[in-house]
Design brief:
Blueprint lengths: L7 E3 L10 E7 L2 H8 L7 E8 L17 E8 L8 H20 L4 E3 L3 E4 L2 E10 L3 E8 L4 H6 L8 H5 L5 H20 L3 H12 L5 E6 L4 E10 L2 E5 L4 E4 L4 E6 L5
Helix pairs in contact: 2-5, 2-6
The structure holds biotin.
Biotin binds next to helix 1, strand 4, strand 7 and strand 8.
């Protein structure tokens, strides 16, 4: 079978991400196509589809959306070795999307550990990093769904930029802003400004100083006050000693209700 052809190509005046942006009507998954098309001289390739027939979410879940309702985007990257860590790649993407949401709607989004963006407690965006033949950052950002659509789909805890801003979002304008913000944040990482990205990531997570529960990938659950966090570790004061958790081993990080 012949591979799908893009209906449109953009060449944005960015430094790394989006110098080539390919738009498709339909793909299996933008992550798959981005990984297939990524080449050494095409670092930062962006692949976008109106509709995915086999969109993937975290933990093997399916990611579904009606045509044109969401931004379905993947970025293929070849970061230097020191940046090739899930926590760093997720953090810069989440911070960039938070900044894009602010620019597009005037609303602040929070990062829900590890890969989601929430507005007023409801999920507006999910990020899926995959490292197969190439490293790909997949982004599903809800644009123009209504509360009724989410209810019908059994997703009462989801929201869209249209719902929070009260206006319909123009997807081309969204693409430009999201790609520009991704390029900016990635540029900060490449320029060695990791601490600045880390600071924005911490602020958008918003759990410093709070009582939290960390669920680790091995099933262990640890509770304590989140004293400090960086890409190198999360410091928890458990009341019975300090624990330093490697971010990649933390599957869930949740505030304990009503803690200060
Ligand atoms: C999540 O489970 O929250 C992550 C969802 C990521 C979905 C996006 S949509 C574009 C890209 N292509 C995919 O197949 N998945 C990601």
């Amino acid at each position: 079978m012949s591979s799908p052809q893009p209906r449109e190509t953009w060449n944005l005046d960015t430094s790394h991400i989006g110098r080539r942006v390919l738009f498709f009507d339909q793909l299996d998954s933008t992550n798959t196509t981005a990984a297939e098309l990524a080449s050494a001289d095409d670092d930062g390739l962006v692949v976008i589809a109106d509709f995915q027939t086999a969109g993937r979410g975290q933990y093997g879940r399916v990611w579904q959306s009606r045509p044109g309702n969401s931004l379905l985007m993947s970025v293929a990257l070849r970061p230097p070795l020191e940046l090739r860590r899930p926590v760093i790649l997720t953090a810069f993407a989440a911070v960039a999307i938070g900044e894009a949401i602010l620019a597009l709607t005037g609303v602040q989004a929070k990062i829900k550990w590890p890969n989601d963006l929430l507005i007023r407690g409801k999920k507006v965006c999910g990020i899926l990093i995959e490292n197969t033949t190439s490293l790909v950052i997949g982004i599903g950002l809800n644009l123009n769904q209504t509360a009724e659509e989410f209810e019908e789909a059994g997703l009462p805890d989801a929201t869209s930029l249209g719902m929070v801003s009260g206006k319909a979002l123009d997807s081309a304008a969204v693409v430009r802003v999201v790609v520009q913000k991704l390029d900016l944040e990635y540029g900060r990482l490449l320029a060695g400004e990791r601490v600045a990205v880390e600071a924005d990531w911490k602020w958008r997570i918003g759990l410093l100083g709070r009582q939290v529960t960390a669920e680790l990938t091995d099933g262990t659950v640890i509770s304590g006050r989140l004293h400090e966090m960086s890409f190198d570790g999360l410091e928890l004061d458990t009341g019975d000693g300090w624990r330093l958790l490697v971010p990649e081993t933390v599957r869930q990080l949740k505030p304990i209700a009503d803690s200060v």
